[in-house]
Design a protein that fits this description.
171 residues, mainly alpha, elongated
């Protein structure tokens, strides 16, 4: 930061200098950040949590358009998927809006479980014999794993390192 000393009119070029050679000290005002409200990248988290259940609910409805599965294991998987991809994000929206501290570990666990779920789907699809699985299904499952890895890398790091998250989620 270049500044001119109002006392002796000297040009100070050094960015780290807040004191002139004549003894005058430049007043540096710290930026005050309001952590009382949700802001910054937490808006993206909120948008993702709102869109996620809507997208996943549509996907679950497509899977069950011919009725619920008759096989108990398949029905169990659909119910677990529903609770994981629809109910849990809705709960996390409430936690975020109420600024609850528990959101931080909850969302980290959510992203880890999402990655594990994507890996499970990928390996399940990959283990199927060729006539039963299409190349599109394999490509989609690979894409799902890649998206989950990127999501984990971005959002887990954000929730662990962010000062805004630490100071906003205080209740």
């Amino acid at each position: 930061m270049t500044w001119i000393c109002p006392k002796c009119n000297a040009n100070e070029i050094d960015e780290a200098t807040v004191r002139c050679t004549c003894g005058y000290e430049l007043e540096v005002q710290a930026e005050v950040v309001d952590y009382q409200n949700i802001g910054g990248a937490l808006y993206l988290v909120l948008a993702g949590l709102i869109l996620s259940p809507l997208i996943n609910l549509g996907s679950l409805m497509d899977q069950t358009k011919n009725g619920l599965p008759k096989v108990p294991l398949e029905l169990f998987i659909v119910l677990i998927s529903f609770s994981f991809y629809v109910i849990l994000p809705a709960l996390m929206i409430v936690l975020l809006l109420k600024r609850k501290r528990i959101l931080r570990p909850t969302i980290i666990i959510f992203y880890i479980l999402n990655l594990l779920s994507s890996l499970f789907v990928y390996f399940a699809v990959k283990s199927m014999p060729p006539p039963e699985v299409s190349q599109d299904a394999l490509t989609n499952s690979k894409s799902g794993v890649l998206v989950a890895i990127i999501g984990c890398a971005v959002w887990i790091t954000y929730f662990l390192k962010s000062e805004r998250v630490r100071r906003t989620l205080t209740r």
